[in-house]
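Journal club side-thread
Mid-discussion, someone asked how the predicted structure for our own chain would compare to the paper's figures. Pasting it here so we can look after the session.
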Amino acid sequence: MTWTAPEVTRPSGDTAADERILLPSLLTWHRSTFLHKLAGLTGEQLATASVPPSNLTLLGLVRHLAKVERFWFRLRYAAQDIEPLYDPALGKDHDFEVLDATKAEEAYDILLEEIRLADEAAAGGSLDDTFDLGGNPFSLRMLYIHMIGEYARHNGHADLIRERVDGHTGA
């Protein structure tokens, strides 16, 4: 049986909330928007590079977003003693370059787990908490803003790729 990415319902949120509620809620919305753009596609479709000359794929984006969730929330912010998701010796774009369609479900599940663990890592934190980033302080507030931008950028990529894969367009 061929796996297909499941349907996703995007949450609505309070658009006038305190920023400790608003920032994580907006990130959740962007995360679910990304997953929504994958819904109904097979692993083979997710692994299709459809916007030449770019080799960017939806599966590559899934793997990349799992990597950045782990890197920013768990390795940097929470300083957890864990390995990066992909071996840095394989190259900085390894997450984009390994496109085994038979592992699409596994990559999707890893992304979901990294999102869950990222939320768990930041749950009790103050937006004013900082961690070191190259000798400079980086706040949890800025981390949320950075990740919202990361997802917003890749949601745009996903729109273009998805339209070329199967003609689907949408919000």
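Post-session note: The mean pLDDT is 94.
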